[in-house]
Write a structure and sequence with these properties.
8 strands; TIM Barrel; about 230 residues; about 45% helix; 8-stranded parallel sheet; alpha/beta; globular; binds pyridoxal-5'-phosphate
Length: about 230
Amino acid sequence: MIAENLTRIREKIALHCDNSGRNADDIKLIAVTKYFGTDIIEEAISAGITDFGENKAQELNLKYEKLGNKVTWHFIGTLQKNKVKYAVKAAELIHSVDSIELADEIDARAGKLSKIQKILLEVNTSSEESKSGLITEDDVFRLAEQCNKKNNLELSGLMTMAPFTDDEKVIRNSFSSLRSLKEKLFKNGFTKITELSMGMTNDYELAVDEGATMLRIGSAIFGERDYSKDWREI
Ligand SMILES: *Cc1c(COP(=O)(O)O)cnc(C)c1O
C-alpha cells in the first residue's frame, strides 16, 4: 500500500511541478511517521523514502535508537525546552523554532555535540490562535538575526501549517505569504534562507504550486493514524 500511495503522490507532485514550471528534484518529500512504528518505516525505506518527520521528541528518540542514521530525521512538532536534547541528537533539521529561548537551548545542545544544527523558523501564516509560530514579520526578522549570531545554528528556511479550511484561496494565501517572506529575508541578506517547508496530505499540491521545497506528508502515505496509541508502545 505504501509503495502505491507514494507512486500516486509522486505523480501529483510531478504534475504540479510541470504546471508551475518547477523541477520535482527541488522538492523533498518528508514522510511523517508519528503514531507509526519502525516496521512501517522499514516498509517506507524499501519504497524509496529517505526522510522521515516526527512531531514528538521522545517518539523520535525511540525510533532513532532503533534506526539511527539509516534515515534522515526531521523534527516538525512543538518542542519543549527539556526535550531539545532528543531532537538535536537525531534530527538533521528542526522545522519548528519560534522563540529565542528555544533557539538558545538548541544552540547550547548542538554545541555539546559539536554539531551545527540546521533549523527553520515556524511562521503562523493563518493567524489561528491555536497554531504555534511567529506571527509578525518583525518577529521573524528579529529571530532570524538572533539565530544568525549563534555559533551552532544554521537557519536554512521557513515552515508553516496552512489553516484548517476547504477554501483553496485561503490556503494558497498562507503558502504564498510564506514564500514572500522568504524572498524578503533573502533580499535583506539572509541568503541561506532557501527552504520552504509547507504542504501536508490535504494541501501539498497547492504547496507545490506556491513554491514548497519540503512537503510533510503522513496519512496520504500511511493511512489514518490511530491516535489512541501510546508512543511508548510504538
Ligand atoms: C502530522 C503532521 C504532518 C502530516 O500530516 P498529514 O495530514 O497526515 O499529512 C505535517 N506537519 C506536521 C507539523 C504534523 O504534525
